[in-house]
Automatic annotation (TrEMBL):
This is Ribosomal RNA large subunit methyltransferase G. Residues 321-489 form the Methyltransferase small domain. Its main location: cytoplasm. The gene is rlmG. It is found in: Cytoplasm. It holds the Pfam family RLMG_N. It comes from Gallaecimonas pentaromativorans. Its EC number is 2.1.1.174. GO terms for molecular function: 23S rRNA (guanine(1835)-N(2))-methyltransferase activity; DNA binding.
Amino acid sequence: MVLTVTVVVGQDRVKGLMQKSRQLIRPVPQQRMPRVRAKGAGRISIVRRFVANPALHPWYGVTFTKNRELGLGPFELGPQQRKGFGRLIITEHRRPKRQRIGRQMRLYRVGQCVKMQLYVLWNLAVLALTHTLPQLQRFSGNPKDDLHAFDSADEYLLQSLLPQGLDSSRPILILGDNFGALTCALAEFKVTSVSDSVVSHNAIAANLNALGRQAALVDPLAPWPAEPQLVLARIPKQLSLLELWLATLKPLLAKDTLVLLAGRDRDIPASAEAMISRHIGPTEKLLGWKKARTFVCQSDGKAPLPLPPPISWPLEGTGFTLSHFANVFSRQSLDIGARLMLANLPQGRFDKVIDLGCGNGVLGLMMASQYPDAHYSLVDESYLAVASARHNLSQNLPEVKADCVANDCLRGFTASSVDLVLCNPPFHQQQVITDHIAWQMFKDAFRVLRPGGELWIVGNRHLGYHLKLKRLFGGCKVVASDRKFVILRTIKRRTS
């Protein structure tokens, strides 16, 4: 199946139309239409057929013409068309039955058709490439989540691909795909999708599985494919992560590798364009579209800049030094919530301790300094945060028994096996403010705690975590608080 856009116009219009459309889709030799006779209609002299690159998801056959679908032969023009209207029909072809299901989109005046040729061709080609987007799910774990698994930045990146001829033998690298919008659209190629989020990887894998497709999913510290033909990236809000991506990417680029980066206007850091130009090469900023923006660049051939080193600083009142890779929460200084928890750490005998949402691992590290005989599991959904926690434990307390795991909450942990869970839950996923992550953390903590085990959380006072703990555990106590944060302690007294 191929995406076929057939345009019927007068002979004098074909040459100009071809010049405008040449960069979008490649033409095949023009064909002459048979004479079409109808009341009020003249002869349609020239038919020009365009065949889009069949590698770019060729799922739709499309006809834009003064009569009905050309593949079915000439038809008598209807009353609306005799008045000078054109018709746009989208037809989906499915093998082996080759069923044709037409859906009229809109009627255009013939005079407007010439002006709208390029617009129509562009949007129909976009439709062919992005038809998988409405099928994607966020898999956020929130049953009330009715948000799309894609946004205008994903659509803008896919639109920017349409003039490009892609080679199925060369790899494509995708950075920061949130839920699989980019990965699933290009999964017929050799796609490697890089993300710092376990949750994003799980969502991408689920969407790929639902569509019957495959792609390689790797973390930022794993090896990336060399000399990709194309790099697509969602610009992160954290400049440190963008810098890590660009520094890692530059040595891998071929001379002809095209790099496209996009993001929502409100989320793109002000210095992102300068950073892209400094690391990769001259950068072109495309016009905004639906409050999204795309940057296009290619390698300038210069020597790559060194990878940004981790940020390190001493932990006050201790002999420990904390190091932080890119994208780690509060990597410049100790956050206020963790500072309050460190001043009120649990006391007692603990054999197994989990630091859930560990970040740089400071809570687990300080607990291990007081209870070195216990076994510790430091868990976070960020691969770079887990790498930071692992580094901090190995550098400061190498003798402690500890596992650092990148995971979606406590999925896969044994039930009723833990004495203490420490938790500093986030209340947002990407740009969406939500409490379902905290709720999932509390439910997982309840499942893995032994009867009599304790859950200690620190969070913003206004989030009302005590209501959730009362519903799940039966109640909680306030250990300490300040103007902004509160520490809550609850005990598992039942098994279900």
